[in-house]
Amino acid sequence: MISTYVQILLIILFWNADCQIIPRIEECGLSCSQGIHCKSKPSGGIFSSFCHDAPASLSSVVLKSMKISTVMKCVQGSPCSLHLNIKGTLSLDENVRGLEICSFSLDTQQSQCINVRFTKKKGKMLSGKKVQVQFNCIEVNVAQHIYVTMKTVPHYCEVKLSQQYYVEDCRNSDVGKYIPACSAGKLDYNLDRARKIVTVNVSNFPRDQDYYVRLCHKWFTCEDAGAFAVIKGKESFKSVSLKYSQLLPCLCIEGWLALPDARRVQLCPFENDTQVLWDNIVYNPSTQTLAWEPACPVLVMVNLCRFTKLNDHCEDIEKSFKNSSEKVKYSRVDTHPRLCMKFTTKRGSWIKCPFAHGEFPAWKMRTAAVAEQIQVFFTSQTKAQFSVLVCNRTQMASCESLGMHHSVSVGDPVSITMSQEMCGSTICIQGWRTDVDYSVPLQICDTFCGFHGQSYSDGNPPKAMAHRMKSVESLH
Q1: What are 208's strand-pairing partners?
Q2: Residue 194 Ramachandran class (φ > 0 left, ψ -120 to 50 alpha, else beta)
Q3: Do residues 391 and 431 touch, judged by C-beta distance below 8 A?
């Protein structure tokens, strides 16, 4: 593993590279060390000449110490540009007439070369002198990969200096601020929901440069959500239309110049449209697994709840809370229409009931009051096990047990003895499935017990009846 010290050192080096100030020049040109006059002219190119065998008298170190850096040429009223600043040292010799400096772009395959010739001052010999040459008129692009050579004139075999060089990219604060190619552009959009099309308008970028636009889903990086489009720099119409499949809160518009390592700009206008995220619920009948997976990164609390008809309230189911930004699973889940999922974020809560449309088998609970007993029946399309108890509902989500649990199978009724004191508006019969891990507890409340052969209905005078049936479908 890399030590903490080395990691800190690397961070400092990268930070310094991004924050390095590029030296400024107002004019480019050629300069040679004092006492030696030099002049330059364009050369035939990096592949224009062959080498010659070097004479025996020629020193093996006639060329020394080539150094390359970047300078920024800024002239008032014009945009700044980047240039290579090439420095080298040559030991003058009677067999050397000059110097050739060439740059070759590994990105564009283009080359630029200049010839440097030396002239002596009157009465002074140049042979044996060391001359330092500096040339900074080779213009380069942002993030360009350059191969630079320095050779003698004439070109002697094995007598050459070469070096690869990477021009700073737009992450450098100085380059990013002053070089037009680093302008990320400004994005605006129009939305056609019916056709699922986003029309993107781009402005504030160099008119001679091509520009890329794409839709992407923003996670740790922005992942492609379709092919990108190109706006040609020569075209006057600076807009493009992109199709999307779903309008998600992480759907962003991204644009950048068609340059290596160009700065990118993002526009994410749908961040508040989180409603669509809660639709991605899947149930697997073979494993009885209920799962939800976010289509976008979101910090959310997920839990199961029991939907009630009273004020559209959903009572939380204990031990079902999961705080996650990734996939959430619930194993062995009851498929009752009232079992729902609740999603809570800092913007609010949303309820989704995946079984509410009757696509999966559901169970029902009914009660019948006969004399001093309550008979409880369960019906279900599939085999299921249930538990029943009498409870006192002190709060909306709380029902305190008043007796023992009774285990029941589908088709087998259970009878519960009720005393007169146990009958009342807050006394409920509560039933739930026990052969699953997550079940909705259903309650039949306001149960009137029939004593001495009489039954009572909700708020009505006593009537002579053998029994009275209640179903959970008509209750809370």
Answers
A1: none
A2: alpha
A3: no
For the chain, percent helix, then strand, then coil, each to nearest 5? 10, 45, 45
Task: Provide the pLDDT confidence category of residue 48 given band limits of 50, 70 and 90.
Answer: low
- 328-355 pLDDT, tens digit each: 999 999 999 999 999 998 888 999 999 9
Rounded distance, CA 136 to CA 73, Å? Answer: 10
Question: Picking from 129-143, 240-254, 274-288, 311-325, which range would have the lowest pLDDT averaged per residue?
Answer: 311-325
- The three-class DSSP label of residue 172 is coil
In angstroms, the CA 272 to CA 246 distance is: 14
Cα gap 114→87, rounded to integer Å:
14
**Residue type for position 28:** C
> What is the reported pTM?
0.59
Taking each continuous run of H as one helix and of E as one strand, the counts in the chain are 2, 35
Residue carrying the six token digits 């040292």: 89
Within a 13 Å sphere around the CA of 226, how many CA atoms are in the beta-carbon half? Answer: 19
Q: pLDDT, tens digit, for every residue of 243-258?
A: 999 899 999 999 988 8
> What's the gap between Cα 342 and its chain centre?
25
Q: What are phi and psi of 138, to 5 degrees?
A: -90, 110
What is the DSSP pairing of strand 24-25 with strand 63-73? parallel
Task: Give the rounded distance of the alpha carbon of 102 from its chain centre.
Answer: 43
3-state DSSP call for residue 181?
A: helix
Q: How far apart are CA 137 and CA 140, in angstroms?
A: 9
Contact call for residues 95 and 55 (beta carbons, < 8 A): yes
Token pair for 347: 């913007």
| Residue 368: both structure tokens together | 């019948």
Q: Which residues pair with 39 in a beta bridge?
A: 117
Provide φ and ψ at 137, rounded to 5°: -105, 10
Integer Cα distance of 217 and 336 in angstroms: 35
Residue where the block lists tokens 């923003």: 218
Q: Return the number of other C-beta atoms located less than 10 Å from residue 351's C-beta.
A: 14
